[in-house]
Amino acid sequence: MTIERLVNPHIRELQPYVPGKPIEEVERELGIAGSVKLASNENPLGPSPRALAALGNDLADIHRYPDGACFVLRARLAERLGVGQDQLVFGCGADEVLELLVKTFLAPGDEVVMPWPSFAMYPIVVRGMGGVPVRVPLDADLDHDLPAMADAVSERTKIVFVCNPNNPTGTSIGAAQMADFVARLSDDVVLVIDEAYFEFVRRSDFPDSLALLAERPATLVLRTFSKIYGLAGLRVGYGIGSAELIGFLERARHPFNVNRLAEAAAVAALDDDEHAERTRALNAAGIDFLTRELEALGCRVWPSDANFVLVETGEPGTADALLREGVIVRPMGGFGLPDHIRISIGMSEENEKLVKALQRIRQRAAIPEPRS
Ligand code: PMP
């Protein structure tokens, strides 16, 4: 008897998420050193110094279970966001909040409408519950095709995902477009607005998704401490919703899903406005630099409100070629965009290293191979 026969069919057929490889592994495989990783949308400045100090203070207490309610983090964040404490749910990354959401709302066969390309975990968590991902292609500008997404909602739809700004394109939805979409959306579906990159947004007409919560209770906004706060390795993210919706997600949650160190670091990072501001400034300068330099090399750089840019290089294989130059970026072939790469914004020297590497690749391609 094989184990496979016993596995739930929707798990058997699941393709696991492929994360960016750790830098050490890539270097070992290629026998190189000194490479830079611009592949996982991490904070190049590192964690907030305040978070590091808080971790030091908390280390001696890790024999104690964490506070399962995230009492301190909940109070601070509720105050900062201007929402009730019962409007927040915390998870082991925003990833876990996604899991709680599908566990709470999806039954096998239920449909979930999502933009595509978008965050690769959406179809995975949906399939993991036996749900059916309904992928709606982005439009020609790689923006959400919101009218097509509204059309894709059927009586079988339980959840609709919006990713704003969208990963991997960096493109964002404005307030007017979002309002039109919400007006068309049935009240019978849960709307998830994934704002993992919220703190990097530069457009002035970005939608106020928290204002929507009062008007549309079946809405969940997702945010994370992995990006601007630089705590990706500790894993803490959160959802903001109506007290009613959050109450159901709380039923599906494990009691100690946010670890002690993660909570302590998140509380400290939340207060570190200086670190967040430095990160934002570094990111904005990096986007502007890469856009200018890569456009000068003939690439198309998509406008980004996040901490990465999507780049059409015009030829496949650029991510591999960059890897050999010691620069790790994310290939986009899995999204059907083989001539695109996603570049996370790094420190200025890392961004420069990437540009120089691409220049070298371009020069080599322009010189005909010597005949043998
Ligand atoms: N949503 C989006 C759009 C993301 O890009 C990510 C991280 N890559 C997440 C959610 C999950 O973030 P985390 O689990 O690190 O909080």
Protein described:
It is a single chain. With 372 residues, this protein is α/β, with parallel strands linked by helices. The strands form three sheets. A seven-stranded mixed β-sheet has the order 2-8-7-6-5-3-4. A four-stranded antiparallel β-sheet has the order 9-10-13-12, covered by helices on one side. A two-stranded parallel sheet has the order 1-11. It is globular. The mean pLDDT is 95. 40% of the residues lie in helices and 15% in strands. The structure holds 4'-deoxy-4'-aminopyridoxal-5'-phosphate.
In whole angstroms, the N-to-C terminal distance is 56 Å
The largest beta-sheet arranges its strands as 2-8-7-6-5-3-4
Question: Any idea what the radius of gyration is?
Answer: 21 Å
The residue fraction in helices comes out at 40-55%
